[in-house]
Amino acid sequence: MSTDRATTRKRGRGQNDPGRPGRIVRAAITVIAEHGVEALTHRKVAEAADVPLGSTTYYFTGLDQLVRAAMDEVARRSVAQLREWEQELPPDAALPTALADFVVASATEQRKYTIAEHNLYTVSLHRPDLRPAAAAWDDAFAESFIARTDSVTGRMLGTLTCGLQMQVVLRDEKPDRDKLAAFVHRALVGSVA
């Protein structure tokens, strides 16, 4: 083994590797996105994170802890992404078009995270310990829409956005931006008589 490689390996071990827990969580998200929560194992996560198996069990003694950490991370990232999107949106932006663009980006550029988000969100239905995190995620997600509309409309747009994201990642074809914008427009103006 070369001296450079030995130095790299030594630097990446134990307390000298403070980023390891985060890499393990991100690897768990990748495994969940590719195979689903039910396929999550310490071994698969260790391989994806390129860490020894013992590291995953050191930081996360059970898979439930790892699932919770993954849920917290995708929720944090999802809400941060939406807040950044909302802050960069001009005050006079056409909300249906802007939201359609957000959903398209979620299904294309951010596809892995969107799939993991929906996997973890669905798991919370059967795991009471994850439900408060899922509910808090819903509330935080709606805040960006409430800032642009009102409480009821903002919550409706949050729910619609989640539903549209799930629908577009279930399909292999490219999302239809105009169709998505039409859904949001209809939700904002109400149904036709």
UniProtKB/TrEMBL annotation:
PROSITE patterns: HTH_TETR_2. One of its GO terms (molecular function) is transcription cis-regulatory region binding. Residues 1-21 are annotated as: Disordered. Residues 41-60 bind DNA. SUPFAM superfamilies: Homeodomain-like. Keywords: DNA-binding. Residues 18-78 form the HTH tetR-type domain. Pfam families: TetR_C_31, TetR_N. PANTHER family: HTH-TYPE TRANSCRIPTIONAL REGULATOR RUTR, TRANSCRIPTIONAL REGULATORY PROTEIN (PROBABLY DEOR-FAMILY)-RELATED. This is Transcriptional regulator, TetR family. It comes from Haloechinothrix alba.
